[in-house]
Amino acid sequence: MSKIQLKNVFKKYANSEGYSVKDFNLDIEEKEFIVLVGPSGCGKSTTLRMIAGLEEISEGDFIIEGQRVNDKEPKDRDIAMVFQNYALYPHMSVFENMSFGLKIRKLPKKEIKEKVEHAAEILGLKDLLNRKPKELSGGQRQRVALGRAIVRNASIFLMDEPLSNLDAKLRVQMRAEISKLHRQLGTTVIYVTHDQTEAMTMATRIVIMKDGVIQQIGTPSEVYHLPANTFVASFIGSPGMNLIEGIRNEKGYFEMAEQAQYRLSSEQNEAIAQNENKPFLLGVRPENISVVSEPTSIQGVVDLVEVNGPDMLLHVIVNNQTILVKSKTDEKVKVDQSVFLEVDDTTVHLFDKETGQRL
What is any one of the record's Gene Ontology cellular component terms (predicted)? Predict the structure, then answer.
């Protein structure tokens, strides 16, 4: 059950001039874990709320298993939602919070007890069923919110920034738990976050949004290694991709400055042959650039060294542009040192500076 389709979906609020979501198209297969990611205000939560039925769709179709459900009430959509703020009733115990929706649907007491205990077992909440929310930690409250969704046996789970109120260590732990839960339950999950690490580690496919428009849809590997445009290139990855400005010179090199040139491949030269001397952006990830001892055509000066455990991030100034280089901490590199850089040719992208599109 649950192939989901969003076809040409738009959202425009009554008091707004423009659209919050524009021409959103997405097919979701059963049991996928789809993550909508993007900066604040990009339309990801609005899209999720339209799927839930909490927001009206201005234009377009929302289809579940071939049936248009735009006008169906939220309760009739076979969808369970987990919010950012847990939304637990403070005066109720964990058991009462988890069983509340089932009581409203007038399920038999025995069945309610079985469902709640089964969900509590999966989530490690069995010993906490009699506690009130104020007696629980943030992670435990989030588990209760998940449990309330699980007991409904819905075929689609919607999660809106469910981990943003947790500390860093707990977020990592809960990420793993939600991924495990998804495999265990075999449901379809649509998950919203602004945290691209969350998106990369949990999703089967990622939908990257900006200003209400989908920028790219792909697996974590696809959006990382083949970004559609400069926005995706800089948004995905921590840190994002280096976008270095330059032109293609008559010798077929990408030139940042006379003393800083990168030899383009024949395919890359072909892609931009029509646009000689037009500014381009060369995209390369920090881990695909290395500091070498032999002289190369790219020389710069180290401006900053950030050490992070086994890795360090070097900020290297080349012709007034900062290039980030991910390196091992055992390399002896200091601030103000002059260094030669080598780029892994197989990982380079070219982007049109004006449109931002990958060539």
Answer: ATP-binding cassette (ABC) transporter complex, substrate-binding subunit-containing
* Buried-exposed string 274-295: b where 16+ CB fall within 10 A, e elsewhere: eeeeeebbbbbbbebbbbeeee
Q: Does domain 4-235 have CATH number 3.40.50.300?
A: yes
Question: pLDDT category, 27, cuts 50, 70, 90?
Answer: very high
Residue type, 254: F
Closest listed residue to residue 161, CA positions, set 153, 171, 152, 150: 171
Please list the helix, strand and coil fractions of the chain in percent, rounded to the nearest 5, in that order: 30, 35, 35
pTM recorded for the entire structure: 0.90
Asked if pLDDT for residue 271 goes beyond 90, the answer is no
Distance CA 46, CA 74 (A): 15
H/E run at residue 176: helix 168-185
Give the separation between CA 358 and CA 29, rounded to whole angstroms: 28
What's the fold here for domain 242-352? OB fold (Dihydrolipoamide Acetyltransferase, E2P) (2.40.50)
Quote the Cα angle for 292-293-298, to 5°: 55
User: Is it the case that residue 276 has pLDDT exceeding 80?
Assistant: no
Six-digit token string for 27: 């097919």
Domain coordinates in residue numbering, the chain? 4-235, 242-352
DSSP 74-112: GGGS-EEEE-TT----TTS-HHHHHHHHHHHTT--HHHH
**Using CB atoms within 10 A of its CB, is residue 6 exposed (0-12), middle (13-18) or buried (19+)?**
buried
pLDDT bin (cut points 50, 70, 90) of residue 275 is low
* Each residue's pLDDT tens digit, 33-44: 999 999 999 999
* CB of 347 closer than 8 Å to CB of 307: no
Question: Which amino acid is located at 224 in the chain?
Answer: Y
What is the pLDDT, as a whole number, of residue 248?
A: 83
* Predicted confidence (pLDDT) per residue in 62-76, tens digit: 999 999 999 999 888
